Amino acid sequence: MKVANKWLQKKTVPVPVYSRRGRGWKVKRVKWSIPLPSQLIVVILATGISYGAHLYTKFQVDIVGDIPQGPPAVTAPKPEYMLSTLQDAFTISIVTFSVTVSLAQVFAREFDYSINSSQEFIAYGAMNLVGAFFSSFTAAGS
To answer: What is the C-alpha separation between 117 and 123, in angstroms, rounded?
Structure first.
């Protein structure tokens, strides 16, 4: 594992405190206001400061570099990880499904329609099965 950059740790401690305080600013317009998320402003400012101050060369702050274009190649999940993550995956899937179905039921009650939890279960299973071959994040509602 790589050793953490001490300079970067000292400079990034205030960021979570600032972003939790901000929650979003409102920019006044003629008849409406547009919410600006403070987290986005922090990211833009930090990116500009990092680029302008040449932090990569001075303090060895890592940068993303080249980002490949297009979708990732289709690959099968690695079998050596399956047994070691099976218990955690099962627990996470139960919690995720419970939260998702309860959220769907709240929306169904509010907008007067019905849901079928078996259909939701099959849909989430299919999405996550297909997503596993594209290295995607787990599908869930929150």
So the answer is: 10
